Amino acid sequence: MGNNLIAELIKAIWTYMAEVKEIKIMEVCGTHTQSIAKYGISSVLPPGIKLLSGPGCPICVAPASFIDDAVRLMMMDNVIVATFGDMVRVKGTETSLDNSRTKDKKPAVVYSPLEALEIAENNRDRTVVFLAVGFETTAPAIAAMIRHAEEKSIHNINVLTSIRLMPPILEIVLEKHDGELGGMICPGHVATVMGEEYFRFLPDKHDICSVISGFDAADILGAIYLIVQSKCGDKKPELKNIYKRCVSFNGNEKAKSLMGEVFTASKGLWRGIGLVGDSALVLKERYMKYDAVYNFNLSPRDHEAAMECSCGDILMGKRSPGECRLFDSACSPANPYGPCMVSTEGSCSVYYRYRR
Ligand code: SF4
User: What keyword terms does UniProt attach to this protein (predicted)?
Assistant: First the structure.
């Protein structure tokens, strides 16, 4: 990637901003938030461009009651809770898996859903509950794991799901911002699975210029350049895909069909945001025997107790981390209060580490 290209993009952005003056652009995905901070992108942009972080950190959006259920399950006899590492430090209503661990009860940290299945295979006398957290990106791997369990008759694996879908939450984001957003940088990973058409509704229904982008500096600057350029003259908002090296028109058909076989869309609770229709993936009837909510008779998660955390506003791009009164006082990476401070892709953690 040439420095020349980067310099040209920055120059062109400054040129167009002489006309645009002010614009708010949301980067939806936590990986973009991290890249923007890592490459110091905000520092080379004109002051009129305000970059806002969106709801694209899967750990951050899992509701507190999801963690509460995971802690309860971990304390049960003959249950092993398996999870990605980041989830271990996220607090539920009162505590986290990490803070609840005892000599005998602790979470098993795994790097993939298949690793959780392996634990179940090797511990047939216990039930392994995998915390299935993520977006459209991780859903295919979780669906593949359920299919493997079925094929290999491993019935002591369960999933506690908090898998979320992008389009419904983006509708809410746009509603909350009520025309204030000038453009959206769409998540390249989600588009890799779902295809560029998945985000067509953004310009078509909401008149917002949207760019599917990769994660290096030139990708992100390219997306900002296209959004700013679209504001000059009388242009119709469009969807642009500048991540064609990974994102095709229709996405990964195999991954999509696997998701469609195992999951169905349902309402889902988002941390600090509330219940959003059709925004979650849950197991289809046929695979219900793997569902921890069903097997352990857990209450459906449809509301959340109010918490002091401002994570909901952060995830909606309505506040920046520095505007939370707990930031860098009661909440820091060493002692996180809210989930946005835990994950390396969480906005508060990124702001803390890079002082973006
Ligand atoms: Fe939540 Fe902590 Fe961020 Fe405040 S600083 S919004 S408490 S994660």
Answer: Iron, Metal-binding
